[in-house]
Write a structure and sequence with these properties.
Blueprint lengths: L17 E2 L33 E2 L1 H7 L8
Parallel strand pairs: 1-2
Length: 70
């Protein structure tokens, strides 16, 4: 029987509950058929700012939020 799933937690988020990926991330093999994006539940309800989010400015841009604020 072959491997049916490989789970990898290697996001480099500096132990923060949420991370916005850089343009070159994540490095996903071309054979990948499913990618699931996750965020730590302990990030829910917290402002998008240090020390809660790794790269908060990038997170705001990806979510189409204003550059400042929560």
């Amino acid at each position: 029987m072959g491997i049916s799933a490989i789970l990898v937690e290697a996001d480099g988020s500096r132990m923060l509950p949420a991370k916005a990926p850089a343009a070159h991330e994540p490095a996903v093999p071309s054979s990948t058929t499913l990618v699931v994006s996750l965020v730590g539940m302990d990030a829910v309800g917290l402002p998008i700012a240090d020390p809660h989010v790794h790269r908060p400015d990038r997170m705001r841009a990806l979510l189409a939020l204003s550059p400042v604020g929560d």
